[in-house]
TrEMBL record:
This is Adenine deaminase. The active site is at 199 (proton donor). It comes from the Bacteria. Binds 1 zinc ion per subunit. Substrate binds at residue 278. GO terms for biological process: adenine catabolic process; hypoxanthine salvage; nucleotide metabolic process. GO terms for molecular function: adenine deaminase activity; zinc ion binding. It comes from Acidihalobacter ferrooxydans. Zn(2+) binds at residues 16, 18, 196, 277. The lineage of its organism: Bacteria, Pseudomonadati, Pseudomonadota, Gammaproteobacteria, Chromatiales. Its cofactor is Zn(2+). Catalyzes the hydrolytic deamination of adenine to hypoxanthine. Plays an important role in the purine salvage pathway and in nitrogen catabolism. Its EC number is 3.5.4.2.
Amino acid sequence: MDMGALIARLPKVELHLHIEGTLEPEQLFAFAKRNGVALSHPSVEALRAAYDFHNLQSFLDLYYQGTAVLQTELDFYELTMAYLERVAAQGVVHTEIFFDPQSHTDRGIAFGTVIDGITRALTEGEQRLGVSSKLILCFLRHLDEDAAFATLRQAEPYLDRIVAVGLDSSEVGHPPSKFERVFSAAREHGLLTVAHAGEEGPPEYIWEALDLLKVSRIDHGVRCVEDANLVARLVEEKMPLTVCPLSNTRLCVFPDMRAHTLKQMLDAGLKATINSDDPAYFGGYMTENFTAVQEAFDFGPEELLALSLNSVEASFLDAGAKARIT
Ligand code: ADE
Ligand code: ZN
């Protein structure tokens, strides 16, 4: 059987995608020109050549620099629409998108400008492209608790457009415990919770995300395999892990795809899913991520379908919508 053809046909659900990480260099230059923003790289090619990362922070430094070109509601709309068009062509039927409001509000962009542009595209994407979606507000963990609370307050008028809060940015040194109270406040508002944990940080951060932040999914979580008791708990609770294979190799979490722990995770009974994280920076969207793991582990139809099904089950869709995908 042709695995490429199967991957192309597979109904895909994306659960770990930073909308700011879909900003392709060409679009970044176009927005910079439209908004009169000076860039530190002279050309699209020079910028792309700089995407040579050695860890999470080396990526984040460029990622936050890139956000400077996003200024108007139209920018956020076009950014989101371009992502939806690309993934609709790859067979993505549902996507749950992170956004980092603090990376914009700290530059003087209004929270409403950001969320209005993103959600206008999400509504159009559902109607015109048939891609359903949900939106997850991420707190930047390198900033303090007060800043996260201020962001939650800014989000209050828009809570009907947000399904969950998440936690991203520089992991090591910023444990989930730092955000226990703001996550509790978010849950009191009726929001679900997720958190990046165990990407570069230790298994203890995954325990904290479960016990203190009461997450419904762990984002990344690949370092869970270092702790057998943690793996047992994650299996027992059927806790989804949103794995991002190309991200992990591009950020040197693993030296190459064959060294990735995905297969070990699936063999242990963990509910791993495949996602693209920041596709404009890491060399691919959903299809490229599926293809990379299929080739590295020689996955057949059984594994590919299991991965696809894990994502449907782990999504925040209701039971009826899940049944319509499978
Ligand atoms: N922000 C965008 N991508 C991220 C990642 N992979 N880890 C943490 N924060 C992020
Ligand atoms: Zn991420």
